[in-house]
Amino acid sequence: CTPRALHGTGRLNEPGSHTWNELLTRAYDQVQAFQHAVFGHEFTDETEPGGPRWSTAHTGDGNPAYGLSEIGDDWPATIPAHWVASFATHDVGRSLERALVNGATVLQPPFDGPYGFGAVLSGPEGEVFSLLVPDLD
């Protein structure tokens, strides 16, 4: 098998393209240790007062790779660890309306977060994703 270019993967932070990944877990310390041991990721604590533990994983060259957030005891026990892929948009409201018309469900209404303004949705097959106007500053 010969590797080929995967068209579109070079795009980032443009409307409709990937912009961020977040891993939500109840095993926060174990996941950090595993990711560090296997991938060499270093973590910067981003926890806000009163919020869940949250950090940014960085690759060996210092670039942010993904977010890691702890699922707290206040979440329903039925929610498992999961990744949330975020897709860029210029207008969360407009993109949210289009998603709802096409079968999405709002899991978290629009909010202002550490990496931009976004909303979390579930698609028609249960997939979880977010819409995000990335804060590129």
Per-chain topology:
Blueprint: E1 18-25, H1 28-39, E2 42-45, E3 54-58, E4 64-70, E5 82-88, H2 92-101, E6 105-113, E7 116-122, E8 128-134
Parallel strand pairs: 1-4, 5-8
Antiparallel strand pairs: 1-5, 2-3, 3-4, 6-7, 7-8
Summarize this structure as a short list of keywords or feature phrases.
single chain; 137 residues; alpha+beta
CA radius of gyration is 16 Å
Say how many strands there are: 8
Average pLDDT figure: 88
- Outline the low-pLDDT stretches: none
Shape: globular
Structural class estimated from helices and strands:
alpha+beta
Q: How are helices and strands ordered from N to C? A: EHEEEEHEEE
Largest sheet: 8 strands, mixed
Helical run tally: 2
> How much strand?
35-45%
Give the termini distance in whole angstroms. Answer: 40 Å
Sheet with most strands: strand arrangement: 2-3-4-1-5-8-7-6
Helix content: 10-25%
Chain oligomer state: single chain
Structure notes:
With 137 residues, this protein is of the alpha+beta class. The protein has an 8-stranded mixed beta sheet. Helix content is 16%, strand content 39%. The N and C termini lie far apart (40 Å). A hairpin with a 5-residue loop joins strand 3 and strand 4. The mean pLDDT is 88. The longest helix has 12 residues, at 28-39.
Could you provide a short overview of the structure?
With 137 residues, this protein is an alpha+beta fold.
